[in-house]
Amino acid sequence: MPAIIVDIDETVLDNSPYQARLIQTGDSFDPKTWAEWCELAEADAVPGSLAFLQAADALGVTIFYITNRDAPSEAATRKNLKALGFPLANDCDTVLLKGEQPDWNSDKIARRALVAEDYRILFIAGDDLNDFVPGFKTADPAQRKADVAQYADHFGKEWVLLPNPQYGSWEASLHGRDFSLSEAEKRVRLQSRLRGYSVPN
Asked: What one-character DSSP code corresponds to residue 48?
């Protein structure tokens, strides 16, 4: 049976209002405010994602949503997807969240393997390199580029990487994956990476 695996956030659901609120308030990502946003179930669809997945569903392709949203947000996530018209299977669980099972962690390997047991995966879509393979957590951007190069034949074919300029593992690599830094220190490091870019006021 054919299947497509998609990430949820910034792949099929657009969380720009949450990100905009952080900018307005001067806050940074917080699991509590993120969970509250998820519970609202008010995210819009990423343009094109709904029509594409509905067309795939009409052709008999099962859509699996593998997300790093935490398991307690499953009901709200399903509500959001259903309200927008995203295909949700009735005969199996196709919304697979982080922590839903003991070995379902952020790298998504176990969840993809579960899908592959019974389905032929046509392709995977996501907004972060870790949606495809684990290990893109090096602190060196040049090494990340070299790591990606070895998978170049997959991208644009069975892997579809959507750009996410708001957040992702790329951002952590720019501040050296040093999570002990304050937000101000992270900002200084990120700004130092803008060499040669003109940033409007």
From this structure: T
Class of residue 135 by CB neighbours under 10 A (exposed 0-12, middle 13-18, buried 19+): exposed
CATH for 2-167 is 3.40.50.1000
What six digits make up the tokens of 112? Answer: 């993809």
**185: its two tokens:** 């220190």
Kindly state the tokens that stand for 121.
């995966």
Domain ranges (residues) in the chain? 2-167
Residues in the chain, how many? 201
Distance (Å, rounded) from C-alpha 19 to C-alpha 9? Answer: 12
Amino acid 56 reads A
Query: Is residue 107 a contact partner of residue 87, using CB atoms and an 8 Å limit?
Result: no
Q: What tens digit of pLDDT does each residue of 51-86 get?
A: 999 999 999 999 999 999 999 999 999 999 999 999
pTM: 0.85
Q: Of 119, 121, 98, 122, nearest to 110 (Cα)?
A: 98
Of 103, 151, 143, the residue nearest 126 (C-alpha): 151
